[in-house]
Amino acid sequence: MKKDDSKKLYASYPESSRGRLLTEPESQTRTCFQRDRDRVIHSIAFRRLQYKTQVFVYHEGDHFRTRLTHSLEVAQIARSLSRTLRVDEDLAEGIALAHDLGHTPFGHAGEDAMKDVMEPFGGFDHNEQTFRIVTQLERRYADFNGLNLTWESLEGLAKHNGPLDGPNARHEHVPDSILKYCKNARDLEISSFASLEAQVAAVADDIAYNNHDIDDGIRAGLFEIEDLLKLPLVGDIFLNVMKRYPNLEKESLVHEAVRSLIGYMTEDVLKETNDRLLAAQPKTVYDIRCQKRAMVAFSDDFKKVERELRAFLFERMYRHEKVKEMRERVKQVVRNLFSHYSEHPEELPDYWRLEAGTKLTKRSARLIADYIAGMTDRFAFEQHRQIFNLDFEIK
């Protein structure tokens, strides 16, 4: 494919990609990053996101975000940011679409329960699970397991939230699957930052969930517009919309305010990112990876606003009695399923049963976790109903 001269020199160029673990013939119509994005879209794990929820369980309404709609919103924001920053839109979009593939059913509650049951067996992390899906668990291709993504896409999925090791790491523990891949397959340079495209995907995720949590929280009746008016910036935006459109119905008012907030956050990221790039003067994508801080970020002023917004949402949404009650119910579903399959591995589907064996080991526990993590909300409920011969009461 012809080089895109409109992009910045520090962008990721597909013709300079480090390639795939298993070499494949190049497409005549798509760049390698476009193919990565397309493989994510066509994966089974991506389709399952339609019935995996964020905060609310699938039966609670058709208008709340799912993991799929969230991923699409993140991809749209990532593509917009990438275009303005003149970096590779396809790479950023592919990472954005794939970043939540490893989430369990039932959103954060399901992941918390999975972490609990997997604690004796190495723990559970949805980012690591995403990496396992794209390198191992998708089994659709004749020549390889996983999606055989490019080095740049894998690096972005592993490090979009920052380095995994070294002085700039956010966490002490490097996920086992990523560590093993770096040792036995390809070094993803986990002590450095990822490409600008991966950093764009990470910030787009923050922009998307901050805003859709406001929308979903109001829609669910967990808080009202009046409760947001005391928050810095968020309150001002809502007040401005109310002043401009005094007779606007509630749903449209929320949409206009959220739309304005997304625009404000996007502009803030672009200004801060351009300031950081101007100071750092990177000449290549290698220079981006060698920085001591992320290049794509919110300003310090907005970070203060975001902290107050997240604190509000944590208290009024995630700790709401309605949400807490459902969280405990669905966490029990995950615990029950894990316990049952640990004691009765013969009831797993064929592939999982043969791989797990008859004794509970670290490896078989990971396989059981892989199986449960791949379930949608409704499939997990149905399996629970069949196994325990009861209808799990949901309200």
From TrEMBL:
Residues 1-29 are annotated as: Disordered. Pfam families: HD (PF01966), HD_assoc (PF13286). Keywords: Hydrolase. Residues 67-210 form the HD domain. Belongs to the dGTPase family. Type 2 subfamily. NCBIfam families: dGTP_triPase (TIGR01353), PRK01286.1-1 (NF002326), PRK01286.1-3 (NF002328). HAMAP family: dGTPase_type2. This is Deoxyguanosinetriphosphate triphosphohydrolase-like protein.
